[in-house]
Amino acid sequence: MAILSWDATSARLYETGVQKGVLYPRSAGGTYPLGVVWNGLSSVSESPSGAEPSPIYADDIKYLNLMSVEEFGASIEAYTYPDEFAACDGSAAIATGVYVGQQGHSMFGLSYKTTLGNDVDGSDYGYKLHLVYGAQAAPSEKGYQTVNDSPEAITFSWEITTTPVAVTGKKPSASLVIDSTKVSAVTLATLEDILYGTAGADPRLPLPDEIAALFAAGAPSALALSSISPLDEANDAAITANIVLTFNNAILRQAVVVASAAGLVVTGATTWDATAKIMTFNPTESLINSTTYIVTVGGVVDIYGQSLAAEVKNFTTVGL
Question: How far apart are CA 258 and CA 272, in angstroms?
Answer without folding.
Answer: 17
